[in-house]
Every structure is written in C-alpha cells, then in structure tokens.
From TrEMBL:
Pfam families: MarR_2. InterPro entries: HTH_MarR-typ, MarR/SlyA-like, WH-like_DNA-bd_sf, WH_DNA-bd_sf. One of its GO terms (molecular function) is DNA-binding transcription factor activity. PROSITE patterns: HTH_MARR_2. One of its GO terms (biological process) is response to stress. Residues 16-150 form the HTH marR-type domain. This is MarR family transcriptional regulator.
Amino acid sequence: MVNQIKNQNPERLQLELNLGDQLNALLSASHALNVRTAAIFDATLQPAAFLIVRWLLANGPATATTIAEATAMDRSSVSRLVSQLKKLGYVQSETNPEDRRGALLALTELGRGKATTAIKEKEEEFYKRTSKWENTDLEAFIEILKCFNGYDTKACE
C-alpha cells in the first residue's frame, strides 16, 4: 500500500488528500449535528442514548445485543443507556415473540414523538445545505455517496 502511494501521480495524491480533508470536515460537522440533535431530544442524556433511539426508530424493536452490535457499542453501555431511556419513558421492553424468555426494546409513543421532532431539526439543517441544488446534482451526489459507502457497487463500475 505504501508503495502505491509513493508511485502515485502527484495530482491524484493531492486530490485524495483534499478528499480526506472534506471527509474529515463532513464527519466533524455530522458529529456536531448529532450532538445538537441529541440535545433537542433530551439534553439530560448522553448523545449515545440518542443513537439508540434513532436506531430503534429506523429499525423497530430489537434485543439489546442487536442494538449493541449495530451501533458498535459495548453491551454494558447499551444496558446502562437503555435503563436511563426506560426511566424517562422513551423506551419499553416487550416480550420477544420468537423467544418468549427474551425481551425486545422498543420506543414508546413519547420516545417516537420526541425522536421525530429532533430528527426534523437535523433534516432542516441538511435541507439548508442542499435546497439550492438542482435535482440532478442531488441525485448525482446520492449516487456517488452510495458508491463511496459500498451500497451500490454496480453503479460504480
């Protein structure tokens, strides 16, 4: 890999460094926006708790183990955060229909409502950044991101 970088065209190398700069800016801005969105949901919680809420909103009821794996959090952190979310009335446990001994975690109506409100704030921020783009530019950006993220490899060929 290091030899590939050494032998790379200087113009291409500079472009890739510029890409790295822009990706770092995107990740930093995204993290800051996630923290602000989490505070809109409930300022008394750690932003990681809102990550669990967002995951449940997008994917529906799940076991704590599934949530931990999907969010790259350790099981004990998920357990602690879920306990806080339950105390505040945002998450509830349901009997797992596939395994009656296990429990699924799900958002309550309160949790779903507050999460939706917080996410709308985040969407407005993204809309501000893309509202003046032509639809074709936005479609192209989406397709490039799909390729970059490895979701649509056929379109990237």
